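Researcher: Go.
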Amino acid sequence: MTEQMAPLTWLGGNPGDGWYELTERLVELLNGQESPIRLSLVAGGGEENLTKIQDGEAELGMSIDVVVSSAINGGPPFDVPLSKLTVLGTGWSPLPYNLLRSPSAPDDLAAAITGGGLRIGAPPRDTTDELMFQRVVAYYATTYDEIADRGGRVLLEDYDALIAALDAGEVDYVFGATTLPAPSIAKAAHGQRKAELAALPEDLIDHLVRRYGCSRGVIPAGTYPGLHTTDLATCFVQTVFVVSADVPDTAAYEVTSLLLANSADLPEVHPSLAGFNPYTAWRNVPAPVHPGAAHAYRDLGFMD
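Model: Structure:
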């Protein structure tokens, strides 16, 4: 009988977002394999997950490439480099930034943010979504406090709560990145209050690509029936599976080997995993690949 390894905690996203659903299904798949590894899922956020891994509160976690890169280098919002971050790879799930709006809300996002009475929601603090939303607000030369001073509201909640607030008329916009597709976004098409998915402004996309390393892309027509009928321009970030450098090589090897051995089944876990490419997942990573993970890529023939 194979000796069991110490259980590993995997920090996902917030309940209601695509990351949480994806990680929940992924943990279920991996725990169902014949393996000495056992994983447990805990809710989290892409920014908070990194500090918890650094502090030894969890072994694995979800984040995005542009924020992991900042964490490794001690860039904003991190005060010092997070030296214990390594990765199992990247490109697991591309995340588009979504902008949901009430059709009665202004089409011009810049005018809405800088004008009076803006009511907008985004995921909670310590998430990568809220960090990017801060950058969006800063691009329009304003702040949360100034929005409130002009009679507006910034609601920071999980995706389920945000969609409920949009449906109830408590906010007019919801901003955030989540898997493609995501149940929480799809739910907005079936509320009592009509909603639509909108493109991001071209100048904002250019700024996020140039300044923060996002990539340009589209949400294809038909992704969310009832919310849009055309391709929508936006920008994307990539999901990274982060792992503590303190995790033993044998454990990182086992988790990575399970992921790679089951790569053909990943699209059934979540459609956003369909584009995962194990031949490139270890290239152009925002943090070092864990030695145990690198060993797995080599043993399975994906790394030279």
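Model: The mean pLDDT is 94.
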